[in-house]
Amino acid sequence: MSSELRARSSAQDIANSSTAAYKQQISFAQILEQGERDGLPATRFVSQFAQGRLTHTGRDFDLAIVGPGLLQMRDGETLVYSRGGSFVRGPDGVIADAQGRVLQTASGGDLAAVGERIEILSDGTVLADGMPAGAVGIFEASAPETIEALGGSLYRAPPGAIVEAEASSLRQGYLESANVVLSDELVAMMAASRQAESGARISRVYDQLIGQAITTFGRGTQ
């Protein structure tokens, strides 16, 4: 099972290695190797929130986070979280990602900014033509192991697990790269596959030995 989990997590990491702000997924078996457990179920993956490299894009609504923070977005009636990404501004000034998930303010509610020149400061303050127009909400997880990855760079947090950020800041005009080291993941996936193959061979030998024992026992009772 541990080999399968490692192979799955590596395959997922490799598939998302070019996804902006994606965080490496680590399996329970890997957590045990690192001496951490925290009561996580055996089939659970958790995100490694190590900082990814920042790339300058110069686009006003490309946002990246420095530190452990998360941006809050409204997806319909549900709140989800992201490490940042590319956003666009609608005709009404509302700022959302390409899938329509609306960026939320620090105090809650949809973020909107109307003006020709939008500047977003490191603390999240939004200036529209030099005038304050709100603040991007930056949050941090009080228990990172409870954050559930939803795919790509999206996350879900249980109630009470998100607090106002203290050690994070925003970078306007930047995107964060995935924190996946592709070569490491390829090596890990190959090692996991070999372990799984060895396990399968051992299982076949064990089955043969059991079969032989049953046959021998049957002859002895005749």
TrEMBL record:
It is found in: Bacterial flagellum basal body. Its main location: other. Residues 171-214 form the Flagellar basal-body/hook protein C-terminal domain. The keyword DNA-binding does not apply. InterPro entries: Flg_bb/hook_C_dom, FlgE/F/G-like. Keywords: Bacterial flagellum, Cell projection, Cilium, Flagellum. Belongs to the flagella basal body rod proteins family. PANTHER family: FLAGELLAR BASAL-BODY ROD PROTEIN FLGG (PTHR30435:SF19), FLAGELLAR PROTEIN (PTHR30435). This is Flagellar hook basal-body protein. It comes from Pelagerythrobacter marensis.
